[in-house]
Amino acid sequence: MTFSLRPSYPDPALSELVERLRDYLDGELADYERERGITHTSRLTRADLEPVWRRSRELGFYGVHLPEEYGGRGLSLTALAALKEEVGASGRVLGHSVLGDMGGPLRAGDILRHATDHQLATYLMPVVRGERACCFSLTETDAGSDVRSMRTTAVRDGGGYRLTGHKVFSTAGPFADFAIVVARMEGEEDAFSAFLVDLDSPGCEVREGATPMSGEHIESDIVLKDCHVPAANLLGREGEGMRIALGRVTRNRLLHCPSALGAARRAIELSRDRALSRTVAGGQPLIGLQAIQHKLADMAATFYAARSMTYAALATLDAGGDARAEAFMCKLFVGETAFRILDEAVQIHGKEGLTQGNEVEYLFRKIRMFRVLTGTSEIQRNGIARELVRRAR
């Protein structure tokens, strides 16, 4: 793998897909955002998002990773990562809606293989087609990294279940039609089940969630009070909820990394351009300062290392190998490296890098979140240590 801020790929099919995606992100989608005045702090509505879902579907991007029977192209994890990196590097506000991260097929994840025919027809295939949207409701105020301490419960009730609890950080909740909710079975200490919950059901309230430091209004609280869910909406079997929710942990952990890599790549590009165009005392370009040259050099070198290890781990998974340790390492190294890159990008941009509305300032806040979300850096270190011990036995 060679270093580039605009990577190319030996696979002609992937290369063509990446080029078309770049054209869409930099052209039509950029124009759409500009015409609507959409920024990272905009309160997005279905009216904003549905045209992007439909257009992305028409162009073959929305759900492109899915098997062909679901309308996708059955992409390898490595190919999907390349697309996610491009989205991250584009700087587009609505980039999360192009491949289906925001309420779409990527948010639904691997649950399609657990769904019944009824669930596929009513809930999941409409998501794949961009007609409906979903959110994933697992986290609670006191159940983040330790999700098994959740208090949301499900009680059997004749032909269904009644759910009670309070979920937080349900990403895409403000414009979702239904939620994938994981709850503890009442009276059973370690039995969790997953349910498809219509968000307009009696006893279900969608509240405005906390605004993360990125400033995006994409989170909701899902409050359930004796909310009836029909038995037909149970995903898989009772007690399989945690396995369904966490069943793709290694893959998902790795697939979050390309988005962060894309943001880091964007920051390097912006910093390089800033250094070339900005002049300092005496009319010398900023790039003429050795201190700036060294910052850019370190940013590029560490980016190359983080990207290389991520794609190596993805290739291992694509080949059917075990990459549990590597996934922990990549999430840790990519998160910490991307944050250092953004920190230096802010430094290179000076006062402008500290100003809200500047792209580098936004990316700094966004990447700071990555060190906590989807497993903190400390959790990744714990996982690496466990794998080292396991492999010594």
UniProtKB/TrEMBL annotation:
Domain Acyl-CoA oxidase/dehydrogenase middle: 135-226
Residues annotated as domain Acyl-CoA dehydrogenase/oxidase N-terminal: 15-131
Protein name: Acyl-CoA dehydrogenase
A GO MF label: flavin adenine dinucleotide binding
Keywords noted in UniProt: FAD, Flavoprotein, Oxidoreductase
This protein's GO CC annotations: cytoplasm
Ranges for domain Acyl-CoA dehydrogenase/oxidase C-terminal: 239-388
Annotated InterPro entries: Acyl-CoA_dehydrogenase, Acyl-CoA_Oxase/DH_mid-dom, Acyl-CoA_Oxase/DH_mid-dom_sf, AcylCo_DH-like_C, AcylCo_DH/oxidase_C, AcylCoA_DH/ox_N, AcylCoA_DH/ox_N_sf, AcylCoA_DH/oxidase_NM_dom_sf
Record Gene3D superfamilies: Acyl-CoA dehydrogenase/oxidase, N-terminal domain, Butyryl-CoA Dehydrogenase, subunit A, domain 2, Butyryl-CoA Dehydrogenase, subunit A, domain 3
PANTHER family in the record: MEDIUM-CHAIN SPECIFIC ACYL-COA DEHYDROGENASE, MITOCHONDRIAL, MEDIUM-CHAIN SPECIFIC ACYL-COA DEHYDROGENASE, MITOCHONDRIAL-RELATED
Cofactor: FAD
GO biological process, one term: fatty acid beta-oxidation using acyl-CoA dehydrogenase
Family: Belongs to the acyl-CoA dehydrogenase family.
